[in-house]
Amino acid sequence: MDHFSIILLLTEKCNLRCNYCYETFEYKASNNNQIEKILRLFTTLSLKYPLIDVSFFGGEPMLARTQIRAIIAHNQKLDSEFVYSMTTNGTLLSRDELQFLVDNNLAQCQVTLDGWGKSHDSARHSKNNRATFDKIYNNLLSYREVSGDYTCVIRVNASPTNAPDIPTLAYNITDSFGHDQRFKTFIRRVGKWGGANDQALSVLTSSEFETIEKTFYQIVPKKITL
Hints:
This protein is of the alpha/beta class.
């Protein structure tokens, strides 16, 4: 084996409260002692593996941006090649923040949209119940200005609430990102994943989702689909 893959959950904190989320937000953030242990782990791993894949997850990993930068700075001193990825809600990942990460071997980021406009905001709102769609979509648009070879994956979540808006979202993704092959997209249905709102959560049936999925992939070009 010539490479090692690891997922780092540096914080369970999140600035959003999506209605299907299963997180409890109890684990706030890694303290200095835990970060030191992570750094020592990477030092040890670098003695054995020439390539190490690191995925930043959460919670919202950008709430731990200071810890992320410390890890990247430490790993630059090691002999191994480090390649990073991130799953983020996109509200805190500005163009400049993404440029820094891409310049330091971020290969992929994933951002989720839950429909277009208000249908997204009804499911994916801040913990103060504020809209998030405009912030996330404008950040995505700014990522086109980031230089470098990276992939931005736009995940689309489908639910009964946003189903009517999925074609509108698909057309806008195509218009905004279809000419930049660094952007990829795919669609999944929202499920009951163990969150506190599962009993009240309405989800699509398999056949309902298949219809929406087919429409989505008929609209977006194959070159930007996963």
